[in-house]
Amino acid sequence: MATDSRFPDWVTLTWLDRTRLDPRDVAGAVAVTEAVRRVDTPMWMTDSTRSLTANLTYGWDAEPTEAALLRDETGRPVGLLRIDLPCWDNRHLGLLDVRVDPGHRRQGIGRALFQAGVQRVRREGRTMVLTESVDYGPAVGFAAALGFERAQDVAQRRQDLTALDWARLDTAYDEASAHAAAYELVRLPGRVPESMQSAVCELTSAINDAPTDGLDIEDETFTPERLLASEHMQELLGRRTYRLVARETATGTLAGVTVVSVDSEQPWHAEQYDTSVVRDHRGHRLGVLLKVAMLRWLREQEPQLREMDTWNAVSNTHMVGVNELLGYQVLLTGVEWQLHL
After folding, report:
1. Domains of the chain, CATH where assigned
2. Which end of the chain has fewer surrounding CB within 10 Å, N or C?
3. In what order do the strands lie in the sheet with 183-189?
């Protein structure tokens, strides 16, 4: 627990200890997140204590999240600060996420939480802060007022899996297959076999070709150790992972990949993770082939699914075109903001 002169005297900031998490703190943090979601982004899925606990104790790719909870004088949680400090690459970055209960906004506590986060990032020797927001309302003005630079425009799209035009998708698949006769598709559910880990990591790095616009970031690095960490995190979250790869038949080289995750606690919803094709294998419509084949696989294995979400940079016109072909519709637009320290 700490007092900080940046905050009004009616609130108290508590940094959560991941080694001995208090379930009440986790519950309070999730409650703040849910209050914000209902007002700002009701189309998003709800968070859970399981998800937050996994992020705090283990973290995405074994990079644990740090968090601080803000409580009012009655003990009610009214604000949440989350900080991620990349370790595998981009060690100049700190990622901040601030949530303020809608009933306690415009009192300076959001700004104070950001300042506390920036101070923490500075102490770690990081030189840049990243944060994100929806592209409307007070969020944009708030980020600009704090000195953040608009670095990339992004869009979230959702696919209604109950209303897929399968005749159209089958036609798209057949047309793509005609261009991809030299490739075969390989299904990799769950954990990647050890014999394929290095090849899958090399394949995954193709995502670094996606547009980054004005973001001051470096390429991500992918290793078998990071892959194992990611797989373990998916299991902690209770998510079922489906990875589909395109392999050149003559050489055995992996050429393209798409990955989807299904939440076992909200099993009607899926998240589309990376889809990428290695540069030397582009032009064979592997992206379309992979994504339609993934939909066929999910129809077999997860027939209860009703929707799937994906995010793309607005400037990533090729992948946006593929997603629109598959029937994705824009849910909202967002902004990636950066601040050099």
Report:
1. 11-126 (3.40.630.30), 156-331 (3.40.630.30)
2. N
3. 11-15, 66-72, 77-84, 93-100, 128-134, 329-340, 149-160, 307-313, 269-277, 254-263, 239-248, 183-189
Beta bridge partners of 94: 129
Q: What angle do CA 311, 314, 319 make, to 5 degrees?
A: 65
Res. 4: pLDDT tops 70: no
Asked if the model's pLDDT at residue 2 lies above 80, the reply is: no
Q: Centre a 10 Å sphere on the Cβ of residue 94 and count the other Cβ atoms it contains.
A: 27
Mean pLDDT, residues 236-256: 98
Residue 58: DSSP 8-state: T
- Token digits of residue 11: 């609130």
What's the pLDDT score for residue 6? 80
HSE-up of 63 (CA within 13 Å, CB side)?
19
Phi/psi at 15 (5° precision): -85, 130
Place of tokens 């798209």: 172
